[in-house]
Amino acid sequence: MAARRSAPGARAREREGPRAPAAGSDQVHSWMLVTSQALGTAWRIAKGSVMLAASCLVASLCYFRRMHCDLGHWLKWWIGYLQRKFKRNLSVEAEVDLLSYCAREWKGETPRAKLMRKAYEELFWRHHIKCVRQVKRDNYDALRSVLFQIFSQGLSFPSWMKEKDIVKLPEKLLFSQGCNWIQQYSFGPEKYTGSNVFGKLRKCVELLKTQWTEFSGIKDYHKRGSMCNILFSDVLLEYKLYEALKFIMLYQVTEVYEQMKTNKVIPSLFQLLFSRETSSDPLSFMMNHLNSVGDTCGLEQIDMFILGHSLEIKIKVFRLFKFNSRDFEVCYPDLPPREWPEISLLTENDRHYHVPVF
């Protein structure tokens, strides 16, 4: 009976006993669930942030890589452009060894190649020319070669230019000597300028006077060389200087022609000039010869005589294609006054000229 009576109490305790732990288990489960959800949320947030940061980093790397490539291409293009532009505009190139230049330009065993190699060897061994400066091949290259030598050597003005203001010469031809035909003067490829010719010629001659004065006043050879490299890389300035030289030649021809009309003795080279049908007077000389210089042709031999006379310099030219003949070495003019300075050029065909370096 006692055992039976205790059975219901025991069963009650058994039913009541597990209730307390069930409440704690629910709390633990809830806490774990909340913690798990918080961790899950934090992980998703962190994962999203990491993915976003990684995406931003990848995008940034791709952007900077592309920008680096674009910048590299841009810099490479500009460097190449500037190099090409500088090389294209450098009309008198740096010195190169004479015999190396000859070996590069005159390969093979043709009669002409053999003649040229012998001529270059003659320049090297007998005339002591060690290097050459190549001059841009166009219809101004004779004028370019001469003017480069004048500026690089720092030669002074011709005596007659010191006595006259050469800037006023265009107006003098028109108003003092009645040469209204000068309005038909051509600036290289520019065929006709009309009433603007005087202003353009004045600017060209003024530029020549300014540059010549500046170069002749520089005593340091290396500084003159640096300035020559700058000047002879500027196409627009160059062409103005060459047109000024052409006009100086025209002015001298006109002056001598006026002297001839008064029966004064004139140099023989001008007698030869005026004896030609195509240059019997200054107008025909300008129209038939001078206007074409810089456009369709360069200077002829008689023009070289006039240029040397006008600038009061002795232009010695080594004509390589005339090697082993009396015309291998010529001077323009042929009998200049002893006090005139001398410059040297070399040519392979009487059309294009280069600058020898002793």
TrEMBL record:
Gene Ontology cellular component terms for the protein in this record: cytoplasm
Give me the gene this protein comes from.
Answer: OTULINL
Show the segment(s) annotated as Disordered: 1-24
Q: Which family does it belong to?
A: Belongs to the peptidase C65 family. Otulin subfamily.
User: What's the name of the protein?
Assistant: Inactive ubiquitin thioesterase OTULINL
Q: Where is the composition biased (Low complexity)?
A: 1-10
Report the subcellular localization. Answer: Cytoplasm
> Is tRNA processing tagged as a keyword?
no
